TrEMBL record:
Pfam families: SBP_bac_1. This is Probable sugar-binding periplasmic protein. One of its GO terms (cellular component) is periplasmic space. Its main location: periplasm. Belongs to the bacterial solute-binding protein 1 family. Coiled coil: none annotated. It is found in: Periplasm. Keywords: Signal, Transport. Residues 1-22 form the signal peptide. Part of a binding-protein-dependent transport system for a sugar. InterPro entries: Bact_solute-bd_prot1 (IPR050490), SBP (IPR006059).
Length: 417
């Protein structure tokens, strides 16, 4: 048992005699949406580490990539007055729940371990409400990634990963010509929005991304560059197979693994999926940032809800300390496909995709090209994100023109504000 935990547990162990306490070392009920192969492996690391400290872990997975179903379940639980102890929840959502007065602070742990000194300020700010930590970050995911099957590319005569959208389209046409699905995609709103935001970054750079998808600037939303982004999305609609509708993202990753498809555009949780299947980066699959110069940030974190009882409070404190321990940040992120949230963890055991992510993250911070993901709830309130993903999905599944798309999007965003 580590010293911090020992200190935290003293009061708990003195008062935990009696029914209802599953163990003396803290209990957590953890609500999350990590149910794919790679995700389950990664969250299993957290469960194992918590149980290794004699804690009791109650698993509450709510399947559904991107977490929309999990967030609906969370709201129902909070309204019923029965919140889980810890929830995979991130970005502005943390502040939204904090303002409702339903979170517990883990600031005592954060202060005693000096989280401020080891977290990038951009993440530390997201984790705090009124100066106190109410959440702990596990990772840094990058959304603007492209995954490919090298054999499929070779069969189509594609010799390198595309660096512009025109190159992407040319490679996709070649794949199509040899009967390989160019783009493995799952037609779910959050996946459509994931591809869309990467395209916006590639067409208009961090500047357009920030103005349109973060600051919700009306001129940027209606700009010619946004029309061009929808044009590219329309082109990509032509590169997916007939069965894309409703497909889970990890099944799309499977298509790339098996060489049925050439590319997938998805955050680096897709790498967790390749790794869980025993695939080797650079050999069985390739990674490259999607065209564009920037970094679309998505960071997972656990947020601590207002629960009572020493056993639960102790569980929260232990979990917070565990999540931020350098050892856990390494093992978890090796499985998840992401890189550690802590800046002081060695990347020696990480693969080339992770190193590229880290390098590009530092460059993006330097060049002011780091942008928060809209699709993954890092940028804007959930209600406004809902307008984006609805519109993008409607566009993807209809013959709406790009001009009509920007007009409708700008109007919907204005209404929602
Ligand atoms: C993201 C989340 C990732 C991931 C993905 C697919 O929003 O941040 O951790 O696993 O959804 O479920």
């Amino acid at each position: 048992m580590n010293i911090l935990k020992k200190a935290l547990m003293v009061s708990a162990t003195l008062t935990t005699i009696g029914p209802g306490f599953a163990g003396a070392e803290g209990t957590v009920e953890v609500l999350h949406w990590w149910t794919s192969g790679g995700e389950a492996k990664a969250v299993g690391e957290l469960k194992d580490a918590f149980e290794a400290q004699d804690g009791t872990w109650i698993d509450s997975p709510i399947a559904g990539g991107g977490g929309d179903a999990a967030m609906t379940a969370l709201r129902a639980r909070v309204i019923a007055g029965n919140p889980p102890t810890a929830v995979q929840l991130k970005g502005p959502g943390i502040q939204e729940w904090a303002r409702e007065g339903v979170l517990n602070s883990v600031d005592a742990v954060a202060q005693s371990e000096n989280w401020d000194a080891v977290l990038p300020p951009v993440l530390a700010d997201i984790m705090k409400y009124e100066g106190a930590y109410v959440a702990a970050p596990v990772n840094i995911h990058r959304v603007d990634w492209m995954w490919a099957n090298p054999k499929a590319l070779e069969a189509a005569g594609v010799t390198q990963m595309p660096t512009t959208w025109d190159e992407f389209n040319a490679a996709a046409d070649k794949l199509m010509a040899v009967g390989i699905v160019p783009l493995a995609h799952g037609g779910q709103p959050w996946q459509d929005a994931t591809v869309f935001e990467d395209v916006v970054l590639g067409i208009g750079g961090a500047d357009l991304f920030r103005k349109a998808l973060v600051e919700l600037d009306q001129d940027a939303l209606q700009s010619d560059m946004m029309i061009a982004a929808f044009d590219q999305l329309r082109k990509m609609r032509g590169y997916v197979d007939d069965n894309f509708s409703g497909r889970d993202w990890n099944l799309a990753t499977g298509m790339v693994m098996r060489g049925e498809a050439g590319f997938q555009i998805m955050g680096d949780w897709a790498k967790g999926e390749f790794l869980a299947a025993g695939k080797v980066p650079g050999v069985d699959f390739l990674c490259a940032p999607t065209p564009g110069n920037g970094f679309v940030l998505n960071s997972d974190s656990f947020t601590f809800f207002q629960v009572e009882g020493e056993e639960n409070i102790a569980g929260q404190q232990v979990l917070a300390g565990l999540i931020m321990s350098p050892e856990f940040q390494e093992t978890f992120n090796l499985a998840k496909g992401s890189i550690p949230a802590r800046t002081d963890v060695s990347l020696e055991s990480f693969d080339a995709c992770a190193l590229r992510s880290h390098e590009d993250l530092l460059a993006a911070i330097e060049n002011d090209a780091l942008v928060p993901s809209m699709a993954h709830e890092m940028a804007i309130p959930r209600s406004i994100r809902g307008e984006f993903i609805d519109l993008v999905t409607n566009f993807f599944n209809s013959d709406m023109s790009s001009e009509e798309a920007v007009q409708s999007l700008a109007a919907a965003v204005a209404r929602a504000q």
